[in-house]
Amino acid sequence: MPESLAGARPTLEAVAARAGVSRATASRVVNGGAGVRPPLVEKVTRAVEELGYVPNHAARTLVTRRTGAVAVIIAEPEIRIFSDPFFSQQIRGISKELTAHDTQLVLLLLEGPGDYDRIARYLAGGHVDGALAFSLHTDDPIPAITRRAGIPAVYGGRPNWSEPAEHRTVPYVDADNRGGARAAVRYLEDLGRRRIAHIAGPRDQTSATDRLDGYRDVLPDADPALIAEGAFTAASGERAMAELLERCPDLDAVFAANDLMASGALRVLKERGRAVPGDVALVGFDDMDAIAEGTDPPLTTVRQDIEGQGRLMARLLLRGLDHERAGAPAPDPVITATTLVRRASA
Amino acid sequence: MPESLAGARPTLEAVAARAGVSRATASRVVNGGAGVRPPLVEKVTRAVEELGYVPNHAARTLVTRRTGAVAVIIAEPEIRIFSDPFFSQQIRGISKELTAHDTQLVLLLLEGPGDYDRIARYLAGGHVDGALAFSLHTDDPIPAITRRAGIPAVYGGRPNWSEPAEHRTVPYVDADNRGGARAAVRYLEDLGRRRIAHIAGPRDQTSATDRLDGYRDVLPDADPALIAEGAFTAASGERAMAELLERCPDLDAVFAANDLMASGALRVLKERGRAVPGDVALVGFDDMDAIAEGTDPPLTTVRQDIEGQGRLMARLLLRGLDHERAGAPAPDPVITATTLVRRASA
Q: So which residues are the signal peptide here (chains A, B) (predicted)?
């Protein structure tokens, strides 16, 4: 892709002309957009994208004292990031949004908990303007790390702590996990299923506990033997399904807290000769591109817009960077809707 | 993973004691290892890893003027990085090696050629000590970008330029692509195949042209109609296979330049009723974890150690950072061996 370095660069004047605004307005938008009316911001942003305008970094840094880069941290070992399509979809949304705002995505990879000190040093070193973090676990150190580094952060999924404490309100983007789970379990009930099992995610993540709460909202008196815990991976879905069949051979439906675990459960159900959906109806969560439509039968599942959540996280952070300068408060959490997608598995 | 922030940190004295060296030697190794004999470097490195020692960043920065971070740049759009397991395997090797040397992996994602200017700014901004780049294309701007940024870089795969020029010698790690291809084609010949087709990779990457050269080494007079070009993706392997069957319905073997294209070719061969290996013997390249053993029949393929190449790239760069201070020349290229792995497809 060598073309980018050759050829004349579009100027800020060209951007202003195309957007129909003054050079000063175009400059303000390119450097963050504070104090410019949203319709003008949009016009200039569109002109920037159409012309492929690249602001002069030295000039911009002087005005904004920014690096033009945002860190993305996934609180999972590197190996899970590349094997679970959830992460690539979220990164895709973030990457598109940051690129549209000429901001560099810096993905900080880690192997294990011992690597957080190094990440803390990098964030404190002034190498990024802000951070986006997701897949946090209970009492995750990342919020404290970003606070100490003095940079704003937006989280994917609601962070949670084992004890209430101060400074724990942080901006985040999350799906309506509890509402989505309720819809899934109600749907199984409406199909006439009476022994509905749940394969939950790890209890140290709110996406898992919220979905479990949704299951319990609909079935407050459910037999505890009908609930098994997995780790959001296909292999853990297989193990949980085998456990459930052992404990409750009469189960007639399963709601799995994500599609990967549902795909593992489906394999075990087939191996044990249980017809899906005939003997056991199965519902997942996520509507993951690479999984839900590819299983046999295809998965009925609760759809959440993962890429859209990534875009929203990036947008909130970029806005937060402007607010910070304008002295405005941090943005409120954003909860995105979920919808039940009916396919053949239930 | 919150444990990392609590608990007492191991000290440099503890590292020195465990390694059986002086504190001064331990310090020198922790800060880069220049001027310390390799066996001592190894002892201290092992003690650092065993104790989980984290050097005081401020102190280390003063001594070394380093950020403790290395950029990884893949010259492909973000979407291919997460869909082609080649990249995750190479990143895995890099991540392990950098983590073992307490260096932060900073993956710079890009959407397209227009993003190189932004990457150039980030690299020139002093946010990383060096760069590892792979999947470069002909006349790729990345070597010039790292040179202008004044940071050392090591490449995965031999970079190439359309015209010879100065300053084009760069350190790289590559597999013996040509030798591996020769072994694959000779093997097909030894099986008695007489119409051996080749699905080549994109001609702007040396891994593709080297494998094509290996094919031609064995079959200098091959019918040009037996060669089709793909793009290293499964879909492009399907298209190339369909073309080849159209042009040369009598072909009895196919050597595909990677496993992804071989898996696509296999699907088309089956659809058209050609038995593999009965009617058409098929050989791939890479021996990719998630692919080669999973096809039906499993793929005979040329194995290269992708994760190992990632580790080597990181090791060369870290050594280069030391050499730089010591005034030594850049390291020579490293070519790793390939081996033919025989499975059922040929």
A: none
Instruction: Look at B112 and A5 and tell me if their CB atoms are within 8 Å.
Output: no
Q: Indicate the burial class of A331 (C-beta count within 10 angstroms; 0-12, 13-18, 19 or more).
A: middle
Q: Is residue B138 part of a domain?
A: yes
* Type of residue found at B333: P
Number of domains in chain A: 3
Residue A271: how many other CB atoms lie within 10 Å: 11
Q: Which residues of A touch B67 (CB under 8 A)?
A: 122, 125, 127
Q: What is the DSSP letter of B299?
A: P
> How distant is the Cα of B141 from the closest Cα of chain A, in angstroms?
5
Give residue-wise pLDDT tens across range A187-246.
999 999 999 999 999 999 999 999 999 999 999 999 999 999 999 999 999 999 999 999
CB contact under 8 A, A109 and B110: no
Interface touch A127/B69, C-beta < 8 Å: yes
Same domain, B13 and B89: no
Phi then psi dihedrals of residue B335, to 5 deg:
-110, 125
CB contact under 8 A, B4 and A115: yes
For B29-72, write each residue's pLDDT tens digit.
776 555 678 788 888 888 887 887 766 544 454 455 578 899 99
Statement to judge: residues A203 and A315 lie in one domain: no
Examine residue A246 and state whether it is found in any structural domain, yes or no: yes
Residue B278 shares a structural domain with residue B220 = yes
User: For residue B44, what is the domain's CATH number?
Assistant: 1.10.260.40
Residue A201 belongs to domain with CATH number:
3.40.50.2300
Instruction: Tell me the C-alpha distance between A169 and B98, whole Å.
Output: 34
DSSP 8-state class, residue B75: S
Say whether both A165 and A312 belong to one domain.
Answer: yes
pLDDT band at A3 (very low <50, low <70, confident <90, very high): very low
List CB contacts (< 8 A) between B104 and chain A.
108, 118-119, 121-122
**Residue B113 DSSP one-character state:** G
CA–centroid distance for B18 within its chain: 35
Rounded distance between C-alpha atoms, residue B210 and residue B49, angstroms: 39
Which of B140, B123, B136 lies closest to B174, judged by CA?
A: B136
H/E element, A130: strand A130-134
Whether residue A188 is found in the same domain as residue A290 = yes
The residue segments making up the domain with residue A254 are 177-305
Using alpha carbons only, how large is chain B's radius of gyration in Å?
A: 23
What are the phi and psi torsion angles at A294 (to 5°)?
-90, -15
